[in-house]
């Protein structure tokens, strides 16, 4: 009598499929990038700082910076931009392009593929500081944390 193939899944077969699918998900997920494989971070810090100041002034859309922002930094910037827009509306002040000048950039590298920076920006009314954390993901820098002080 010929042997009948057993198609019922066993725990070992299910575990093997699960581990195989996890490795496929990990393969297609965002990959960390080493500092030596990334470009210089200072031009991004400068441009992103000016972009953030323009978003808060109401002359640039947050979506234009989305490519360089992590999810948390993007949400924080959207919330801050909405508050700035409401404050301008309440005062009756139109959005105007500010003339900001970067006074200094201080960078540290606490880990491979990570840059933390403090940027001091002089504006027409006051001087502000931006704290930013860049992380290397998929061969490029992304700002994962952003705080305007």
Describe the structure.
This protein is an alpha+beta fold. Helix content is 37%, strand content 27%. It is built from 3 helices and 4 strands, in the order H-H-H-E-E-E-E. It has helices spanning 11-28, 42-57, 71-91; strands spanning 101-111, 114-122, 127-137, 140-148. Strands 1-2-3-4 form a 4-stranded antiparallel sheet. Strand 3 (127-137) and strand 4 (140-148) form a beta hairpin. Helix 2 packs parallel to helix 3. It starts with 10 loop residues before the first helix and ends with a strand. Residues 12-18 have low confidence and may be disordered.
Question: What level of helicity do the residues show?
Answer: 25-40%
Shape category? globular
Query: What's the Cα radius of gyration?
Result: 23 Å
**What is the number of helical segments per DSSP (H or I, 4+ residues)?**
3
How far the N terminus sits from the C terminus, by CA atoms, comes to 80 Å
Unreliable segments of 5+ consecutive residues:
12-18
Content of β-strand: 25-35%
Give the mean pLDDT. Answer: 84
**Which sheet architecture does the biggest sheet show?**
4 strands, antiparallel
Question: Could you tell me the number of beta strands?
Answer: 4
The main sheet orders its strands as 1-2-3-4
Brief overview, please?
With 149 residues, the chain is of the alpha+beta class.
Characteristics:
single chain, 149 residues, alpha+beta, four-stranded antiparallel sheet, 3 helices, globular
């Amino acid at each position: 009598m010929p042997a009948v193939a057993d198609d019922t899944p066993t725990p070992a077969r299910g575990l093997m499929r699960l581990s195989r699918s996890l490795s496929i998900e990990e393969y297609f997920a965002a990959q960390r990038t080493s500092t030596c494989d990334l470009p210089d971070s200072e031009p991004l810090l400068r441009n992103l700082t000016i972009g953030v100041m323009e978003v808060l002034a109401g002359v640039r859309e947050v979506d234009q910076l989305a490519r360089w922002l992590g999810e948390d930094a993007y949400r924080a910037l959207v919330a801050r931009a909405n508050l700035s827009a409401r404050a301008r509306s309440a005062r009756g002040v139109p959005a105007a392009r500010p003339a900001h000048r970067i006074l200094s950039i201080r960078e540290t590298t606490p880990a491979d593929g990570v840059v933390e920076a403090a940027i001091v920006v002089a504006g027409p009314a006051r001087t502000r500081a931006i704290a930013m954390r860049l992380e290397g993901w998929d061969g490029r820098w992304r700002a994962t944390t952003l705080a305007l002080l």
